[in-house]
């Protein structure tokens, strides 16, 4: 079925000529500036100033509270005290910085000049006249901040900025004091042994049962602590000593072990013992993959090869896990012949390697 009229209209219609684009659009300019209440009313501006000062004062209070909390909880009282001390210093620092940021935003939105300014682009480098104009503009911007006319606001800002970093700096200063005994990281309870003993016995954690070499089968895994930990001199802080001395013990087919010449006597018939403290950030390394003989850190997936000196095969850790030299005593129990030969755990400034 045909529609002659429609075809005729389509045939006779003319295609409109495209309109040429203008070379330049007219600048519409800036919209009219709207004055804020603080621009029109000095009392409103004063209220905003006091609000900003209040936020800065709260920032100072938070910083001081963080420092007080840090010293209020004595780390020697146990893990919970360490946790609360760290929480206090972190919360104080974070809140102090947050309040300074909120105060700065409120100040900028309500007190600083918010009139939009337009400056035409100019060639680079600028000539002397332009540089003078830029310097003048910076002076005007400084004046627009209105800080010179508000000494209370200026003093509160300076005080808050000085106090806010203290929750971060105080622990660093404390770590450099005479109370910070860095040698604690170099030695563990494995260095202690009962009088007349051949070495410190390895015991199951947490049962504290000594381990016989004959009970350790190939592929088995034992979580180990020093036997009778906390009962020898120098081991009064049980949890601290345990945190440094925890060990993972496994037995591997001796033919699979790759041992350096000076460490061949550090294992016993395929039984090897390594620190459980990851050398990355100190997480407990306790996931043993029996098929690959790999030890995995659950925090950041650092992986250590138990067949080859617990060297790093994957992940962010950079150093192998420290190995505990072991053997058996006259009764067949596994014992540590010495302490670790290097500090356990993550790196710190004073360690040599």
UniProtKB/TrEMBL annotation:
Pfam families: QcrA_N, Rieske. This is Cytochrome bc1 complex Rieske iron-sulfur subunit. It comes from Bowdeniella nasicola. Belongs to the Rieske iron-sulfur protein family. CDD domains: Rieske. It is found in: Cell membrane. GO terms for molecular function: 2 iron, 2 sulfur cluster binding; metal ion binding; monooxygenase activity; oxidoreductase activity, acting on paired donors, with incorporation or reduction of molecular oxygen. It is a multi-pass membrane protein. Coiled coil: none annotated. The lineage of its organism: Bacteria, Bacillati, Actinomycetota, Actinomycetes, Actinomycetales. Keywords: 2Fe-2S, Cell membrane, Disulfide bond, Electron transport, Iron, Iron-sulfur, Membrane, Metal-binding, Oxidoreductase, Respiratory chain, Transmembrane, Transmembrane helix, Transport. PANTHER family: CYTOCHROME B-C1 COMPLEX SUBUNIT RIESKE, MITOCHONDRIAL. Residues 20-32 have a biased composition (Basic and acidic residues). Residues 1-32 are annotated as: Disordered. GO terms for cellular component: plasma membrane. Iron-sulfur subunit of the cytochrome bc1 complex, an essential component of the respiratory electron transport chain required for ATP synthesis. The bc1 complex catalyzes the oxidation of menaquinol and the reduction of cytochrome c in the respiratory chain. The bc1 complex operates through a Q-cycle mechanism that couples electron transfer to generation of the proton gradient that drives ATP synthesis. The keyword Transport applies.
């Amino acid at each position: 079925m045909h529609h002659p009229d429609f075809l005729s209209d389509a045939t006779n219609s003319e295609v409109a000529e495209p309109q040429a684009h203008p070379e330049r659009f007219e600048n519409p300019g800036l919209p009219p500036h709207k004055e804020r209440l603080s621009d029109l009313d000095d009392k409103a501006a004063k209220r905003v100033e006091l609000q900003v000062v209040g936020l800065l004062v709260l920032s100072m209070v938070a910083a001081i509270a963080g420092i007080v909390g840090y010293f209020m909880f004595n780390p020697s009282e146990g893990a919970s005290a360490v946790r609360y001390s760290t929480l206090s210093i972190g919360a104080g620092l974070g809140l102090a910085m947050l309040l300074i940021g909120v105060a700065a935003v409120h100040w900028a939105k309500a007190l600083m000049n918010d009139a939009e300014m337009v400056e035409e682009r100019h060639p680079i480098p600028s000539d002397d006249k332009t540089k003078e104009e830029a310097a003048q503009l910076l002076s005007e911007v400084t004046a627009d901040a209105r800080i010179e006319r508000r000494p209370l606001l200026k003093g509160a800002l300076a005080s808050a900025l000085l106090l806010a970093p203290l929750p971060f700096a105080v622990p660093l200063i404390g770590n450099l004091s005479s109370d910070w005994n860095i040698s604690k990281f170099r030695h563990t309870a494995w260095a202690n042994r009962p009088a007349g003993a051949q070495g410190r016995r390895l015991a199951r954690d947490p049962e504290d049962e000594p381990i016989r070499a004959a009970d350790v089968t190939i592929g088995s895994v034992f979580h180990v602590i020093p036997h009778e930990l906390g009962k020898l001199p120098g081991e009064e802080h049980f949890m601290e000593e345990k945190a440094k001395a925890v060990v993972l013990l496994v037995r591997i087919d001796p033919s699979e072990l790759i041992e350096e010449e000076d460490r061949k006597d550090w294992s016993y018939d395929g039984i090897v013992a390594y620190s459980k403290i990851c050398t990355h950030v100190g997480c407990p390394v306790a996931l043993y993959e029996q098929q690959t003989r790999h030890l995995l850190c659950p925090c950041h997936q650092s992986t250590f090869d138990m067949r080859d000196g617990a060297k790093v095969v994957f992940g962010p850790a950079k150093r192998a896990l420290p190995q505990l030299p072991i053997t058996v005593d006259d009764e067949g129990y596994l014992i540590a012949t010495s302490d670790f030969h290097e500090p356990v755990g993550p790196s710190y400034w004073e360690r040599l390697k």
